[in-house]
Amino acid sequence: MKKRVLTGLRPTGNLHFGHYFGAGVNYLKMQDEYDFYLEIADVQALTDNFNNPEKVYENVFELTCDLLSIGIDPSKVCFFIQSKIPEIAELTVFYSNLVTVSRLFRNPTVKSEVSQKKELFGNNGESITYGFLGYPVSQAADITAFSGEYVPVGDDQLPLLEQCREIVKKFNSIYGETLVLPQQVLSKNTRIKGLDGNEKMGKSLGNALFLTDSDEVISKKVMSAVTDPDKIHKDDKANPDKCMVYYYHKLFTPKDELDVVCRECKAGCRGCVSCKKELISNIIKFLEPIRERRKYYEDNPNEVRKILDEGTKKAQETAKETLKNVKKAMKIDY
Ligand code: TRP
């Protein structure tokens, strides 16, 4: 039997290349080998967007289309919407007895998110909500509701997985072996640098290249990419390892062409503008099949709805089964 994989994404915006290389490539590999559940985590998205329900609503469709466009195959992967699985909310309540408030405050992912969201949670996190503080508990419910053995996530999510493992261990030690202990699967490329040279590509960092960007937007962003600062003139010799354009060529440019880029850059016979233009055209080429698939789903929104409906139905069955076992273990199966 195939091992079970569970992962989730917050529907708060379109996917960018950081998501694609950091997570998407891993999903594409795993979808053939595992029984894969993919949660559109709308309830979790609301924990820091409770005042913006439109945004979450719209991005459920957007995110699903993005995932389908990169080639996630709905015949292999069970897409579902978190809020349609009330069992997750129930489990969250049960698990909340097994977590101390101070442990949640110490969670590094929660801490760093709170410090980034001052307008919502105050300068020192003094206005943090109960819901946001508790989202690691709800994430533990996401994972265990589907008996996820493997959880593919970026390294920023490791503290959440650690907290989930603690909850599982505690639950099993009090109520008897019931829940599956999950393990993380770290992607090889967890982090893609921004075109501005920042260690991370992120929407909030303003340096993201989205899968849905138009040719014009891609051109504009690549044209402003950071190159070797020591190269002033077109024919100066440069160090490609100090250049974000070369860094991106490594992601999008075929090997033989890449060797030429590197050689010419070092020899000083390659201008940055033409080098950027070449990269732009390779990114656009790379996006061709992704755009084609996206257009298909945009033109057939009912198909997207059907994928979500069918996946959600299957997910409901799985979660129901878990809840039955949990309630039995907790002696609340009257
Ligand atoms: N916290 C994850 C993120 O922000 C999303 C998520 C929700 C998730 N539920 C999950 C990830 C379960 C892994 C497993 O990206």
Name the CATH architecture of the largest domain.
3-Layer(aba) Sandwich
Q: Give the CA-CA distance, first to last residue.
A: 33 Å
The profile of the biggest β sheet is: 3 strands, parallel
Count of domains: 2
Percentage of residues in helical conformation: 55-70%
CATH topology of the largest domain, by name, is Rossmann fold
Highest-level CATH class of the largest domain: Alpha Beta
Strand content: 5-15%
Strands, total number: 5
Structural class: mainly alpha
Q: Tally the helices.
A: 15
Give an overview of the whole structure:
- It is a single chain.
- α4 (86-95) packs across α9 (135-145).
- The strands form two sheets. A three-stranded parallel sheet has the order 1-2-3. A two-stranded parallel ribbon has the order 4-5.
- The model has no long low-confidence stretch (mean pLDDT 96).
- It is elongated and about 80 Å long.
- It has helices at residues 17-30, 42-47, 53-69, 86-95, 101-106, 108-116, 118-121, 130-133, 135-145, 158-175, 215-223, 244-252, 255-267, 272-299, 301-329; strands at residues 4-9, 35-40, 77-81, 150-153, 183-186.
- It folds into two domains: 4-192 and 301-330, 3-Layer(aba) Sandwich (Rossmann fold); 215-293, Tyrosyl-Transfer RNA Synthetase.
- β1 (4-9), α1 (17-30) and β2 (35-40) form a beta-alpha-beta unit.
- The protein is mainly alpha-helical and 334 residues long.
- The structure holds tryptophan.
- Tryptophan (TRP) binds next to β1, α9 and β4.
- The site of tryptophan has 14 residues, from β1, α9 and β4.
